[in-house]
């Protein structure tokens, strides 16, 4: 018999889990959270979104001081990289935020259990602590929010030293002279950018014929061009066939899928960034009768319920984009559904961002998706090179592209490469959430001079009315 019982038990304290738990507590549910790691926040806060963005920001400053400050009349003599201090800054940011989650749990009277959570049965969660002891807690409702882990290639095993996953690439003790990144998706490009800016010669090997393959083709072309200009090298349509550690070097073998033939090159370290998989191992799902697909993901309905209606699953353990903000909204939707009978996530307006420089951001349909679906659309583009604020920043690479329905003018997709794209995309998300049109954006005031004016000009361009070109 479980000693403690709760209205809701959340397994996992990542963005989806902790936000969902807080919302449930706000709505009056007696809530508990089970977390296997010593700190809260999941992958995102501990070894994902937050530490990577901290290093991206620091490396951007370093690259700017090295290559761009002189154009602003700022000369810096004897510029040096202090990597230990950069890492300390990253670690403090992580510590502050994970500690903040702990404080929010206390504030909202959420009880926490440290240990690995698994199902004893459909209403009982067993918490296995580090010392091997166990505790059972009962739950009327349960939310699975255990996130994901990096995919390991069967022929290239992580050794946590020369061949690493994204977690290892956040904590190199020195800048590798040469770094191979396997995978041209978000994680590979972001961490590749960090070490490239700090002085590493980075080579990205990607199986597909373009980078960030899930985004608009124009964005893929843009970011490839920009990162090449920054010194990164790319081998597209290439399959890595092996990575052999030889002393303090790694020999990477690959096959050119277009030209044929195999080749190899030598690097100091290898980052494997070929995706993530749902973390559903050792959860005892079978004890609760919960079904998964062939990729280990938990199947849910429109209310995020599993085949056991009182058990919910959110975030990376279910189908869809593996994004923190998606998981957050799903966690909130579950909490509100439990308390009110209503909970909703609009998957058509989930934005995606790549925090390279320039940044890449996207929401809605791509041109290819619209063509494949036979939807008639109009397109408007505006370059940052024609924007006054971008010129003042000295950051003129990129563009805004807006896609709108040819008949109704309703916004269908917005795609950006450029400075602060991660912030600009929010305007498009809000407009699309309210069913807005390109004309709505075009008629809305945008302060001058701002980067946001590119959004208005691109919206005007949908109707061939852009004024600053």
Task: Provide key terms for this protein.
14 helices, 22 strands, alpha/beta, globular, FAD/NAD(P)-binding domain, 469 residues, 3 domains, five-stranded parallel β-sheet, Enolase-like, domain 1, seven-stranded mixed β-sheet, 26% strand
What does this structure look like?
- The protein is of the alpha/beta class.
- It folds into three domains: about 5-150 and about 275-345, 3-Layer(bba) Sandwich (FAD/NAD(P)-binding domain); about 165-275, FAD/NAD(P)-binding domain (3-Layer(bba) Sandwich), CATH 3.50.50.60; about 350-460, FAD/NAD-linked reductase, C-terminal dimerisation domain (Enolase-like, domain 1, 2-Layer Sandwich).
- Helix content is about 35%, strand content about 25%.
- The chain contains 14 helices and 22 strands.
- The strands form five sheets. Strands 1, 2, 3, 4, 5, 6 and 17 form a seven-stranded mixed beta sheet that branches. Strands 8-15-9-10-11 form a five-stranded parallel beta sheet.
- The termini are far apart.
- The model has no long low-confidence stretch (mean pLDDT about 95).
